[in-house]
């Protein structure tokens, strides 16, 4: 078997990169486009009512164009560039969807009420 040279390694890497670019991109659910939002949800999770829906007339207050409520109080959520979501409660733990962000917030709150986030 011939020894792997730098030239062959770079050629193989370039070929793999080219073929990978030809494949359709795999993105998290709802991350394909700015207006491709997740579905609405309304459920009880660990005794707390969590709701989510696309925001009507998105403004600077609704950065992600999506509204999430925990027991009727708005949970500020943001969408990252990679399609993941974070909230003001679990800011350093990105999740796949607004529903997952609401559930993570409920877990983090451990029964404490969600206080309204002051808008600038």
TrEMBL record:
<dbReference type="InterPro" id="IPR010928">
    <property type="entry name" value="MelC1"/>
</dbReference>
<dbReference type="InterPro" id="IPR023199">
    <property type="entry name" value="GriE/MELC1_sf"/>
</dbReference>
<keyword id="KW-0732">Signal</keyword>
<dbReference type="GO" id="GO:0005507">
    <property type="term" value="F:copper ion binding"/>
</dbReference>
<dbReference type="GO" id="GO:0042438">
    <property type="term" value="P:melanin biosynthetic process"/>
</dbReference>
<dbReference type="InterPro" id="IPR006311">
    <property type="entry name" value="TAT_signal"/>
</dbReference>
<protein>
    <submittedName>
        <fullName>Tyrosinase cofactor</fullName>
    </submittedName>
</protein>
<dbReference type="Pfam" id="PF06236">
    <property type="entry name" value="MelC1"/>
</dbReference>
<keyword id="KW-0186">Copper</keyword>
<comment type="similarity">
    <text>Belongs to the melC1 family.</text>
</comment>
<feature type="signal peptide">
    <location>
        <begin position="1"/>
        <end position="31"/>
    </location>
</feature>
């Amino acid at each position: 078997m011939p020894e792997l040279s730098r030239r062959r390694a770079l050629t193989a890497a370039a070929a793999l990169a080219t073929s990978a670019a030809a494949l359709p991109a795999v993105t998290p659910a709802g991350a394909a486009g700015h207006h491709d939002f997740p579905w609405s949800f309304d459920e009880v999770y660990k005794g707390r009512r969590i709701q989510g829906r696309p925001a009507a007339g998105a403004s600077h207050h609704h950065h992600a164009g999506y509204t999430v409520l925990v027991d009727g109080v708005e949970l500020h959520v943001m969408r990252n560039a990679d399609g993941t979501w974070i909230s003001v409660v679990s800011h350093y733990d990105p999740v796949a969807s607004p529903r997952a962000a609401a559930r993570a917030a409920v877990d983090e709150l451990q029964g404490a009420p969600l206080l309204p986030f002051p808008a600038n």
